[in-house]
Design goal:
There is one protein chain. The chain has 3 helices and 4 strands, in the order βαβαβαβ. The protein is of the alpha+beta class and 71 residues long. The model has no long low-confidence stretch (mean pLDDT 96).
Amino acid sequence: MGVFGSFASGSERGESDVDVLVEFSEPVDIFTFLELKEQLEKLLAREVDLVTEKALKPPIKEEVLKQVLYV
């Protein structure tokens, strides 16, 4: 799991969401994915944009992988 975007670069603002890149060791269903998103939003008290590397399109994927900060 890693953070990218404005929180990774330190340029977040009050209304910024948290961009989170996540990988699962096994396939998960949409309900599990959405539950993780909801739990992260509660924990962080912010909207979370949860994505997998597989879901990223090539030009964006390269940028995300350059800036992601794994936690």
